[in-house]
Design a protein that fits this description.
The protein is of the alpha+beta class. The protein has 2 domains: 158 residues, Alpha Horseshoe (Serine Threonine Protein Phosphatase 5, Tetratricopeptide repeat); 107 residues, 2-Layer Sandwich (Beta-Lactamase). The protein is built from 12 helices and 5 strands. Strands 2-1-5-4-3 form a 5-stranded antiparallel beta sheet, with helices on both faces. A hairpin with a 4-residue loop joins strand 1 and strand 2.
């Protein structure tokens, strides 16, 4: 299948703009990953390694480094970078998925199957995991032959730990907004206090951040008053669909997160990504 690079190019442009404005931003990892997806591995490696020099405790960057190595067929280096990700950020679903893929490439089919089965139980509709399972079943049974020393095995987790992997490092609000801003078809995102004051945000549109914040606050207040009159409680999420764009408003207790998108956005996919980001964000 021919890959459409338009969205990747859009992400690269957005990431680079944020990084140019703030050279210390952790957005470097997303920028490097975008270059990786485009097949520009040397560029991806250069950006990510330089970013790690400034942010040596940023686990997501090591995951990107592991993916770069895996894409180039360097399984030993991929396993090493994944060890570094675990060391600074603990185990997450992203780590487990990538470890399973590395083990498959190393011929350690049984160990990879064990990891993927646990992931499938906790999230049976995950396309990435399901595709890896299909790929694994097509491989010859190579047992547990060790090619390189893999990521250190964890002690057997409880069912609760499997379903809810621990996250050692949380996103700051600023970092979370930067990540949301570079998602495909997202035009802008702002955090707004309940009094209408814009706390922070990124918005490339014909209106200002302040105008967007005022619009969102007014819409939220109107919805809050309406649902309170019918005893529906407090609104947690509001969607406004216009002819050329969509506006999502999320109530995160102290702030409203307002996201403006293109009209052709896949709302289901976007909301899944947003909820994952929210889980890792300190509001």
């Amino acid at each position: 299948m021919k890959m459409d690079f338009s969205e990747i190019d859009e992400r690269i442009a957005k990431c680079q703009k944020i990084l140019d404005a703030d050279p210390n931003s952790q957005i470097f990892a997303a920028l490097a990953d975008a270059y990786r997806k485009k097949g520009l591995f040397a560029k991806a490696y250069e950006i990510c390694s330089k970013g790690i020099e400034k942010h040596p405790d940023y686990g997501s960057a090591y995951i990107v480094m592991a993916k770069i190595s895996l894409d180039q067929g360097n399984h030993a280096e991929a396993a090493y970078q994944l060890q570094r990700a675990v060391a600074v950020g603990g185990r997450t679903r992203s780590v487990d998925v990538l470890e399973a893929e590395i083990l498959m490439m190393q011929g350690q089919i049984n160990r990879a199957r064990h990891i993927l089965e646990k992931l499938h139980i906790s999230d049976p509709k995950n396309d990435t995991v399901n595709n890896l399972i299909l790929k694994l079943e097509s491989l010859p049974a190579a047992g547990n032959a060790a090619v390189v020393e893999p990521v250190a095995a964890e002690s057997a987790p409880s069912k609760a730990q499997t379903a809810q992997p621990s996250i050692k490092h949380k996103y700051s609000l600023s970092h979370a907004l930067s990540i949301i801003k570079i998602l495909p078809r997202v035009l802008g995102v702002v955090a707004v206090a309940k009094n209408g004051m814009v706390v922070e945000g990124h918005f490339d549109g014909i209106i200002t951040r302040e105008e967007l914040g005022a619009l969102a606050t007014a819409a939220y207040d109107e919805a809050r008053q309406a649902v309170s009159r019918i005893n529906f409680g407090q609104p947690r999420e509001i969607l406004i669909e216009a002819e050329q764009s969509k506006l999502l408003i999320f109530d995160r207790d102290r702030v409203l997160i307002v996201i403006a998108t293109r009209d052709d956005i896949n709302l289901g996919s976007l909301k899944l990504k947003i909820n994952e980001i929210f889980k890792q964000t300190e509001f």
